[in-house]
Structures are given as C-alpha cells and as structure tokens.
Amino acid sequence: MPKKQLYQLVTLLSVLAYGWLIYNSFFTNTSGEGITVCWFKTVSGLPCPACGSTSGIVEIFKGNFYKAFQYNPFAYSSLFILIASSFWVTYDISTKKDGFYRFYLTVNNKLKKKRIIIPIILLFLIIWMWNIYKAIH
C-alpha cells in the first residue's frame, strides 16, 4: 500500500475509532447489551475474536483493568495500537517523515514468516474460542 493511502486509512480509522469510543463511553453501558458494529456477530450470532474490545477499552479508561481483560484481552493491544499509530502518523505528516510507513513495511514483511504468523493466528483462535464460550455460558 502506498504511503499516502496508508496514512489516509490510518487517519480515517483513528477518527472513527475515537468517535466510537467516545460514543460508547458516554452514551452506552458495557453490559454487553446495545448496538454492535460487528458484522460477524450480526450475521452468525457468535462473537468474533475482537468482540468485547470496545467495552474493554472503556473499562481501561475507567480504571477497571481486570474487567477490561475479561471483556477481551485484545482491548489492551487495540488501545495501544490506536494511540501509537494515530500519534505516529500525525507526527510523520507534520514533520514530513515516513517512520510509520517504514515500520508498516517491516511488520508486513515479518508477518509473511510462518514462525511469526502461526502463533498470532493461534492466539486469535484461543481468544475467539474464549469469546464464544463466554457468549454461550
């Protein structure tokens, strides 16, 4: 993906993510009830590996770290990626640098290696099974 497209995509997704977090922080509760933007859950009735991440991030903001982990452990990494990428892209754009883009290319190349991608896929599958288990019980 070209640098300009990547930075536009990260900017758009960051604005949407921050907006969604603000909406969920002030206008919904984290009881698991309410609207969902997860197309997988809407179609199948089962949670996806990321389901619960928004509620988890909201709980992190409230200082409820254990509850955040219970919603979805990906909440921590999702929040870190959101904050880091949005600040990094903003920095690169304002200083006309390309550090984030070079990092993206490096990570993209590393993810093509089996010894890297297989453990990541296994982690996603474990968290997905945990989400399904929580939804059933």
Automatic annotation (TrEMBL):
Ordered alphabetically, the record's keywords are: Membrane, Transmembrane, Transmembrane helix
TM spans (from-to): 7-23, 74-94, 115-133
Q: Name one Pfam family in it.
A: DUF2752
InterPro entries membership: DUF2752 (IPR021215)
- Protein name per its UniProtKB record: DUF2752 domain-containing protein
